[in-house]
Amino acid sequence: MENGETRNKVWAFIITGALILISFMYYKTNVFYMYLVAYIWFGFAYGMMLQYGRFCFASASRDLFAAGVPRMAVGILVALMFFSLIQATLASTNMSTFHPAPFGIHTLIAGLIFGVGMVLSGGCASGSLYKIGEGNMTSFLAAFFGLCLGQAIFVDVTWFNFLIPQKWIVSAAAKGLPAANMTSSFDTYLAGYIWDQPTVRMSDVAAIKTALPGASKYFIGDALLTALIPAVILLVVIYIFYIRKGFLKKRAKQTGNATPGFSDDIAGIWNMITASQRTTLMGVLIGIVAGLHILVMKGMQIKFGVDNFGRLLTKMGHTNDVSIRGTVFDPGYWYITSQEGQFGAWILEKFGWNMHDNIFFGVNNGLPEPWRNPALWMSFGIIFGAMVMARLNNEYKFKLPKGELIAWGLIGGILMGVGSRPALGCNIGAFFIRVAGGDPSGWLYGTGMVGGAFIGVKFFNWWSERKMAKEMESF
Amino acid sequence: MAMKFEKTGEGTYVLDVCGYVCPHPQIYCKKSLEKMKEGDVVEVILDNPSSVETIMQMCDQVGHDVSDKKTEGGKIHMKIKKG
Known about the structure:
The complex is a heterodimer of chains A (475) and B (83).
Chain A: H1 3-29, H2 34-52, H3 57-67, H4 71-92, H5 105-121, H6 125-133, H7 137-156, H8 166-173, H9 185-192, H10 206-211, H11 216-255, H12 262-274, H13 277-304, H14 309-315, H15 337-350, H16 359-365, H17 374-392, H18 404-419, H19 427-436, H20 441-471
Helix pairs in contact in A: 1-2, 1-17, 2-6, 2-13, 2-17, 3-4, 3-20, 4-11, 4-13, 4-19, 5-18, 5-20, 6-7, 6-17, 7-15, 7-18, 8-9, 11-12, 15-17, 19-20
Chain B: E1 4-9, E2 12-16, H1 24-35, E3 41-46, H2 49-62, E4 65-72, E5 75-81
Parallel strand pairs in B: 2-3
Antiparallel strand pairs in B: 1-2, 3-5, 4-5
Helix pairs in contact in B: 1-2
């Protein structure tokens, strides 16, 4: 074994050992922290799987448009199908922490902004974290300046007041929140618009509830209608537009049959699904683990008799960590961006910026110290899990961003930070989790994301074409 | 850091995209292949593992032949013959 390989393995053991030690220290401090420890290790598992499968939502649409490669889009759809079935199982046993989000055109717009950002920065919200674990510092720029600081600043400034209609201001005022927590443009948007929007979950739709009594409404309404059928349709569309022609040509050469039939197309779809085994395998695993995560967090809530980790922080005397409602950000499932906004806000408060004077932190999510922030530990877990996997496969490489990548990382990161707020989530929270949970607004966000990715790819195509032309001048 | 696309001989090219992260290596690789003739060979040098999977599948779908894929000092070298 070469020196580099040995060093990588040692690092993998050191990181894993340190996390085990940290978990043990939390347990010894107070058993309530086991709630937070669960987030650490699910984050760690996500990180390992994301890195191994190169699982990035940005590459799903980007590689499809830029290189005609459907590997990641297929992986995500496979993950979605498995996750939706587990979500339905959990919902039918009353063990789900899922809740649908307000439905409206804002979801599409937010997805569009996020989609452009993820292509420019080179990774989605979860992809950026696993890439930090690989040593990619362009992703660090995007995550730190965009998802952490950019997001925190976005929810606390009044820069967008000129966009706020009078009826939002009236509606927000009628909510009766303390004036001290209603200072930013985003506050008025949340209280005056978002909270007035309806939420849709297929299993809650009256017609479905009536037609499908019992648990079947979760399996048919949430899983089959919202996730499985659209995912299968998308797989077929991707096959027809990107794979079919090339596959059938190859198959005709092999079999000598020039007139393909239905069985050839089925073989083509299966070939597309299994073309990148590591991505598809990780898609299946991510779907299952994301479901298990929900089950474990619900189990923790039942065990400790709480609905939010903020209640446990309050019991432990950390009242400054929680919002005026006594809560902290505690999604109960895989989520990425809000906790990074909390981290950014925590840093900005150290520089004298009051981040408690808004709804996002002051009323809803609280601002816990980073070491007591459960969801933030999940993000750290993703970074460390990816780092361990990259080290074990000798793929870790510390790369500082240079030249144009600094600009793309910063611009893309800020667009992702901004794009993850109006719809209250990113590629994971606003798309993946919602669709699998039976909330059609997830598809609206996904459509926006794909549209944004298309714009981002068009821009990069133009940019790289210019650079290629310059390089070829000397040929 | 700068992308380099050089002609090293008749029908042979080198594309060096070290330092670049997704999606740049795959976009430059696709664009290089578009500029080449059938049978030409390009040696792609990159250090972003995520891009390799995409490039491999892109070549497989289009019919380009990937040979000599090796990792040296954290850099991945792959030779692609345009099909």
